[in-house]
Amino acid sequence: MARDPGPKYRTIHEAKENELEELRQKSADSRWKPAFHIHPQYGLINDPNGLAYFNGEFHVFYQWYPFDACHGMKHWGHVKSADLANWERLPAALVPVEEYESHGAYSGASLEVDGRLYLYYTGNVKYGAEERSANQCLAIMDRDGTITKYNGNPLIEGVPEGYTGHVRDPKVFTENGRYYMLLGAQKTDLTGALIVYESDNAIDWSFKGELQLGLDFPPSVYMLECPDYFKLDGHDVLVFSPQGLKAEGHDYHNLYNVIYALGRLDLHHLTFDVNHYQELDKGFDFYAPQTFSGKNNERLLISWAGMGEIDYPSDEEKWAHCLSIPRELGIADGKLVQKPAKELEQLREGEETAEFEFEGKKQIENKSSQFELEIHFNGQGACKFGLELFASETEGLVLEFDRSSQTVSLDRGKFEASFGGKYGYIRSSELEIGSSMKVQVFVDRSIAEIFVNDGEVVFTTRVFPKEESKGIILSSDGNMHVSCKKHELAQGISIKG
Question: Is 47 in the active site?
Answer without folding.
Answer: yes
